[in-house]
Amino acid sequence: MAQNVEKVVVIGSGPAGYTAALYAARAALKPLVLAGSIPNLPGGQLMITTDVENFPGFPKGIAGPELMDLFRQQAERFGARVLEENVNAVELGNRPFKLKHDGGETLAETIIIATGATAMWTNAKGEEAYKNRGVSACATCDGFFFRNMDVLVVGGGDTAMEEATYLTNHARKVTIVHRREELRASKVMQERARNNPKIGFLWNAVVEEVVGDGKKMQGAMIKNLKTGEVSRVDAQGLFVAIGHKPNT
Ligand SMILES: Cc1cc2nc3c(=O)[nH]c(=O)nc-3n(C[C@H](O)[C@H](O)[C@H](O)COP(=O)(O)OP(=O)(O)OC[C@H]3O[C@@H](n4cnc5c(N)ncnc54)[C@H](O)[C@@H]3O)c2cc1C
User: Fold this and answer.
1) Predicted confidence (pLDDT) at residue 215 exceeds the cutoff of 90
2) Which helix (H) or strand (E) holds 88?
3) Among 241, 23, 198, residue whose Cα is nearest residue 114
4) Is the CB of 106 under 6 A from ligand 1?
5) Ligand 1 mean position to 195 CA, how many Å?
6) Contact 245, 120 (CB under 8 A)
7) Is 127 in a helix, a strand, or coil?
8) Which atom belonging to ligand 1 lies closest to the Cα atom of 115?
9) Phi and psi for 230 in degrees, rounded to 5?
10) pLDDT tens across 160-173, in order?
11) How much distance in Å is there from the Cα of 69 to the middle of ligand 1?
12) 170 touches 142 (CB < 8 A)
């Protein structure tokens, strides 16, 4: 018997995946969403956060998992089908495309890959323990929680300059920790950061350890790569801005 061919398969169930599924469903394409399962996160990254305060339409904010449940309900209302399975391989050489996932194989005329990206971390001691308790990889998401506090930003590229500059809207002081003596960021982004009186720099420096009281981060042990000296810098936030890896 000929295998059924899906018109549209969406891989991923974060905001991008469910938005694609909603539009495909409303175009009567009956999309199948392969939502991921452990170690991937059905519902995407917002499943591991508390308040989302910048999503339009929710003036009081909304919990990440609640928002993603609404995304799912909205896509399902128009006929999207959701399977909480990982896609382990895709064959794109011939049409229809072939997807191999936890529960079997599926053929598809179209595949939308919405598997998100994973932030890169320094992997310093204590970093994992203080994630969401001071350590973050998203200034626009979390900057607001650091009003009048001191924060560190790790990185030397455009993202780090942008995150640092953005954070000055909220924080008292922003210190960029960079492992070299020169920035990789574009000239214009560098200038913007260097000319900002709230931004300082620690050159040739890396975060050795994030320290705190077990509940909240209170500072970081910073190692000077030239002298080897390790010293404590007090800060309530650490924003890691050293890039993202696409989950393709
Ligand atoms: C702790 C935290 C807090 C955040 N807070 C905010 C905030 O307040 N405001 C804001 O604007 N942004 C916030 N963000 C950023 C936001 O979560 C991301 O920008 C957004 O989730 C990206 O959406 P996405 O759909 O592209 O990818 P993701 O949300 O990363 O979703 C990727 C999806 O792909 C699936 N997947 C991956 N690999 C496979 C596979 N092989 N097979 C099947 N499925 C797969 C996963 O299961 C997941 O469903 C936050 C991020 C984090 C980590």
Assistant:
1) yes
2) strand 87-91
3) 23
4) no
5) 33
6) yes
7) coil
8) 34
9) -115, 125
10) 999 999 999 999 99
11) 14
12) no
142 is catalytic: yes
Tokens read off for 98: 């072939």
- Looking only at the bridges linking them, the beta strands covering 87-91 and 81-83 are unpaired
Phi, psi of 89 (to 5 degrees): -160, 150
> Between the CA of residue 64 and those of 14, 46, 140, what are the distances in Å?
11, 5, 15
CB of 16 within 6 A of ligand 1: the answer is yes
143 Cβ below 6 A of ligand 1: no
69 tagged catalytic: no
Q: Which of 142, 150, 158, 234 is catalytic?
A: 142
Among protein residues, the one with the nearest Cα to ligand 1's atom 30 is 116
Closest CA to 101 of 185, 24, 11, 19: 11
Atom of ligand 1 nearest to the CA of 40: 47
- Cβ pair 58, 66 in contact under 8 A: no
**pTM of the predicted model over 0.70:** yes
Residues 6 or more apart in contact with residue 11 via CB below 8 angstroms: 17, 34, 36, 87, 90, 99, 111, 112, 113, 114, 115
Q: For ligand 1, is residue 122 a contact (CB within 6 Å)?
A: no
Relative to beta strand 117-119, strand 244-246 is antiparallel
Report how far residue 124's alpha carbon sits from residue 89's, in angstroms, rounded to the nearest whole number: 33
pLDDT beyond 60 at 1: no
Give catalytic status of residue 141 as yes or no. yes
Q: How far is the CA of 51 from the centre of ligand 1 (A)?
A: 14
d(CA 181, CA 186): 15
Domains of the chain, each with CATH number or no CATH:
5-115 (3.50.50.60), 119-246 (3.50.50.60)
